[in-house]
Amino acid sequence: MYFVQPSEGKRYFLRLLLHHVPGATSFEDLACTNKHLQHPTQHASFKEACQQRGLLQDDAEWAQCMEEAVNMASASCLRALFAALLVFNAVANPLALWERFKDDMAEDFLYQAR
Questions:
Q1: What DSSP letter does each residue of 47-96 carry, written as one string?
Q2: What count of Cα atoms within 13 Å lies in the side-chain half-sphere of residue 12?
Q3: Quick one: which of 58, 68, 93, 108 could link to 75 by a disulfide (CB 3.0–4.6 Å)?
Q4: In angstroms, rounded to a whole number, what is the distance separating the alpha carbons of residues 12 and 104?
């Protein structure tokens, strides 16, 4: 099987599922979790299925990195760090990370607006 970069999105998650889901016979089988239960869960994307199966890292390390930077960096530096995390790392849930630190990253804009 060919190597696929995490930046390739859907192809990367499909490859990850192909390596970890034994006996799958269709794309629907790969995107389904909890098959042993009466009502299995069909996910809308391969990424969701990977997250549900615990195949992706969580964002705790990136959140801690941002938390440490909040205490000593300016808002513009926080935005640069956030962008670097998105570009160079496999952030599992970028929206959650954004929601958690958006006020800190926009602090200088809010100050200027007042």
A1: HHHHHHTT-S--SHHHHHHHHHHHTTS-HHHHHHHHHHHHHHS--S-HHH
A2: 13
A3: 108
A4: 32
